[in-house]
Structures are given as structure tokens and as C-alpha cells.
Design goal:
The chain is mostly helical. It is built from 8 helices and 2 strands; from the N terminus they run αααααβαααβ. The chain has helices spanning 3-21, 27-33, 45-53, 67-76, 84-102, 129-138, 144-149, 152-165; strands spanning 108-109, 169-170. It has a two-stranded antiparallel ribbon with strand order 1-2. The chain is globular, with a radius of gyration of 19 Å. The chain starts with a helix and ends in a 17-residue tail after the last strand.
């Protein structure tokens, strides 16, 4: 290992240690629950359901292929792009907003994996938004309208926090470490 690589690795280690010992909430959690300042667009559960209904490409990180399709996607957010150029800008903002919300999903395992029934969730037919919506209504005790109005990033963070309080542990990258850039060529 070169001295430069060693210095970089030590800096990353210090950043990880500081993030794990910080008294502050992880930035990604604060961002998910923050009021949207500066004109950020909201992505609620209801918007996800509406986009899913017409199989929006935004839900897969893709952009609509036509101006009419872009207008339909923008409509789910209460936006009305006037020109094709406006639609392109709006679609990029919406795609990024949706991706930030989906990035809040945190894989979790129950406290005792031996007692849990292993389910093939990819084959159960529920999709992704319905289990999260069911969690909000069934476990977080929200009304259906409250659940539909909740920001998707907030919903994922709330689910992870409730599971943590129940003794589950994270199996994905912890929130405290998500803002740390780690070089891909690091050992």
C-alpha cells in the first residue's frame, strides 16, 4: 500500500468513526423528513401509486419518451410543463426526487432469523409500494389518507426506525455511513 493510499484509507476510517459517533441524525434521514426548501418536489405514497398505475418509467429511473408521456408524469406531481424543454428539466428533477426517496429503503432482518419464515418477496405479487403502504396503515397506525400523503423517503425511514426499535438490525449500508464517499478502488 502506498503512503497516499494509506492516508486516504485513514481519512475514510476517521470519517466513518465520526459518522457513527455523531450526536446528529444522519443527513439522509434529516433530508427525508425536512420541509422542502428551495422548491424541491415532494414524492408521496399517493404519487407513487398514481405513477404505478400508468407504469411510469420514472419509477425505474428512466425518462418518459414523449412530451405527452412527460406531461402525464408531471400531472401526478401537480406540475404542468409548458414546453418540451420544460418537460425535460421537470422529468430530470422528478426522476432524481423519486430516486432519493427509494434510496431511503434500508434492508432489515428480524431479530431471530431462525424463527422467521423466509418468503420470496420477488414472487409474492405485492410489488413494492403496497407493503410500505400496509406498514404505514397497519403498524404505524396512520389513516389511509395520511399514509398516501407521506413522503416516500420518510416512510422508508420510519419503517426502518420502528423495526430498529423492535430489535431488528440493518443489513444494508447504515444511514450514518450513506453520506461518506468511498473510492471504488479502495481495498
Amino acid at each position: 500500500m502506498t503512503p497516499e493510499e494509506e492516508t486516504e484509507l485513514q481519512a475514510i476510517g476517521n470519517e466513518v468513526t465520526a459518522a457513527l459517533q455523531s450526536p446528529w441524525e444522519p443527513r439522509c434521514v434529516a433530508t427525508a423528513f425536512a420541509t422542502h426548501m428551495g422548491g424541491d418536489v415532494s414524492f408521496t405514497m399517493q404519487m407513487w401509486i398514481d405513477l404505478e398505475l400508468f407504469r411510469s418509467p420514472l419509477l425505474q429511473g428512466l425518462l418518459p419518451e414523449s412530451f405527452d408521456e412527460a406531461k402525464a408524469n408531471a400531472d401526478a406531481f401537480g406540475l404542468e410543463p409548458a414546453t418540451a424543454e420544460d418537460a425535460v428539466i421537470v422529468m430530470h428533477v422528478l426522476r432524481d426526487t423519486i430516486q432519493r426517496a427509494f434510496d431511503m429503503a434500508l434492508p432489515m432482518e428480524p431479530p431471530s432469523a431462525d424463527d422467521a419464515t423466509a418468503l420470496d418477496q420477488s414472487a409474492d405479487g405485492f410489488g413494492q409500494w403496497l407493503p410500505l403502504y400496509a406498514f404505514l396503515v397497519g403498524q404505524a397506525a396512520m389513516s389511509p389518507s395520511e399514509a398516501k400523503a407521506m413522503e416516500v423517503g420518510e416512510a422508508y425511514a420510519l419503517m426502518a426506525a420502528i423495526r430498529r426499535n423492535q430489535g431488528w438490525h440493518a443489513t444494508g449500508t447504515a444511514y450514518a455511513l450513506r453520506g461518506i464517499e468511498i473510492a471504488e478502488d479502495a481495498p
